[in-house]
Specification:
heterodimer; A: alpha+beta; Alpha-Beta Plaits; 3-stranded antiparallel beta sheet; two-stranded antiparallel ribbon; 5 helices; 5 strands; B: alpha/beta; Rossmann fold; Dimethylsulfoxide Reductase, domain 2; Barwin-like endoglucanases; 7-stranded mixed beta sheet; 28 strands
Amino acid sequence: MANGLLIHYDWCSGCKSCEMACQMKQDLPLGQWGIKVLEDGPWPLDAKDLRSEKFYAATEDKKAADIEIEGSISHGKMHWTYIPEPTELCDLCGDLTAKGEVPRCVQTCQARVMEYGSLSELSSRAEQIGRRVLIYLP
Amino acid sequence: MAAKPWKREEMGETIVRSCAWSPPGCHPVGCGVQLHVKDGKLVDVEGDPEHPINRGALCPRCLAIKDVVYHKDRIYRPQIRDRADRGKNKWREISLDEAMDLLEEKTRYFRDTYGPESIVVFCGTGREATMYHNELTFMSFGSPNACYAQSGWSCYAPRVSSVAYLMGGGYPEIDYAARYADRYDHEGWSAPNYILLWGKEPLKSNADGFWGHSVVDMMKDCDTKLIVADPRLTWIASKADVHLQLRPGTDAALALSLLNVIINEDLYDHDAVEKWTYGFEALQERVQEYPPEKVEKITWVPAEQIYDAARKYAAHPEGKHSAIGWGLAVDQNPNGIQVGHALLSLIAITDNMDVPGGNTLGLPTKNDTNVDMISRAMEADTVSKQLFDKRIGAKEFPFVCDLMSTNHPDSVLDTLESFEPYRLRMGVFQSSNVVGGAISAAQTRWLEAMKNSFEFACATEIFHNPTTMAVCDLVIPLKTWVEHDTLVVSHYSFNIAFYGMCNKAIDVVEGYSDLEFMIEVGKRLFPEYWNEVNTPAKYFEKYLLPPGETFETLQQKHTIQPEEIYRKCEKGLMRFDGGLGYMSQTGRIELWSHAYSNYGDDPLPYFVEPPRSPISTPELFKEYPLVLTTGGRSYTSFHSEHRQIDRLRQQVKWPLLELHPDTAKSLGIEDGDWAWIENPFGRVKQKASLTYSLDPRVVHAHHGWWYPEDDPEEPSLYGFRKSNINVIMPHKAIGKLGFGDTFKCEICKVYKVTDDNDLDNHLPAPPVLAQV
């Protein structure tokens, strides 16, 4: 039965502790990672927020000082997601799991969004969590 | 399951449990770590799953501590240099005894020849050294001049002082169930309904000892919701129900407008107001000047968001409370004392003070190392009253210096430049990189003035930095947190989540911890004071540990969480005399402040524009047409530290100037371009990072950058002039009573770095990403 990692990426804060914990534990050289955090965002979920008409109206002559300086340029919800991605160098910390511990990235995760287990265990956890969750079998 | 012992042997390794602090820096968060030691060398570092706060998690800086401890550039033995060689990398190693003999000789010389006031002791921010700064200055060097070189003392002290003046002490922090062993599961604890983060990004800063990712814990697992007031959309702000994206520096107007809504819509708690506050009617009248529709024009925050946030914060569904996490933006603002006043008023009138899920309150502290040290020094007769009268800036800024035992930082720069009222001849830098670091403004002025004024200067540090290289004649190695025993007290003891033991695991350098340094200097100069407390263990037992605990008992228990007691003002616990209420003049939280009035300021909170802004200086704004905020953190550095750690530079390589894609487009700047940030005080360059997290009219610059890979010698001094935003922050742009600066509310213009406009000062060399 394959073991893997579950990542409730809805709450991954992008702190990159997993990257560092893994690189240090495996003593990997700089530029190599057992897990890498990918970033997407922030970008506006509402298309009108992509281009501020107020701003462009005022900056045709490229003088930001001419922007109307009173009043709001409000934006709606933003998309901003981090996804930790285990690489080919992830060995799921076999030495630690053999001792009954969890992989180092799981222990280190500041947002506590990573779990270790068998695919079936992780599948039921994913179902329980219900949204924005990934399962990796490295 | 019983907790693991603080030290154990496992498979050929010694594993030491410890609570991390500094150096290298962090705040006193005291995260639990397990240090694996083999043959006397640190081989592995992991989080400690049994620690009540971080529960196994850890940030990249602690994970990479091995690379700090054994770094090739570490200062391993004391070093001296001829005064003629200042600014040159010409150091000679000496023994620790020789170094201390020299330091003692110099101290005695300046003390006896020019008076103890000719010695000034600097301390930086956050690190353990901050706990002992005043005592080191007064009781070891015998000088009245302790200097925290941040313009307007603009870090934490303004908030702590607001609390002290308005309610007598006990710093308010978000309730994150920190004093319970079982944390969020604790029976009877209830999570915040809303957390309002004000100018604070706690995930990255862990400011003052608050474990920032608690906010994620509570949002993810306890249904806590979020409101954020911040000019930047931080990642956590993207999870907020309301993001109040205010114009930098307009915080007071926004906070007063929230009060306006809460008071006018009768959303406040009448009982709490009646019993525990003073001056409500006056505040009610004042907030009429700040209706949301008017404040929208000042702050750029839509009025409907102000109404929404106010209603959400003041609500108590199912009796739940809400918490405010107030951040550095309260301090780094000349109007900041009023921001703090308004936020405390918000907490007080909504019955969110000292309640479950609201703001917890520390007990008022006796023997505090900041506010009580002057009386202790006079009692110990190490500094006389007469000498304290010579404290620089204390008469000019009593509001600052009556509470903080230090001198006034901006006045110190004036004195260094003018030799008035007297010349400062000897400088001691304890964990403080004044030139090229994160806290001082006008850094090239500090540089020239210190070079000119100091006949002798000494630093305790782990690495050389622009300050040691520019002005120091003697450098004494500091032990990192894995190399010394110490006590970690969160919030510098103003609101203690736990007492934690930082255990020494290895020996690396011929040097001291901050506390050992204070004791060793003290034993030489004031033996009668220090012979009684001549070890760190004795020091902790005398001054810091709870009654009945010893160094050994803490080592065995590892962490001690004090009891959580809510509504202490009703139990006589917030006053030293045991009376009900608080330790202000009226015994209540003063919405109308007697103290502010006595010191000559408005007794009620009010808003003033920053000294330079689109509104206050419209003509200047035409030339510098962007609002500049600075100092957002990254996970990989503590202020100006960690720049030489290649593994951390992998994750954040350069200082980033964040700007909106539309703004960048109008300036012809693309992502990754180097860009000049220029204001009336000069210019520095950072790498453009295009992001929708900012309003198009606002840019944000990282702080505290220097390049350890660059030339250490003058005139480069590790290239601090190239990118350190503090180089172009103004001197003495402070508030009426002496607190605050404009680090978070300046103006600037931005343009692309080109070969033509960067002739004498080329781009920083890329760091050598060599295997450590």
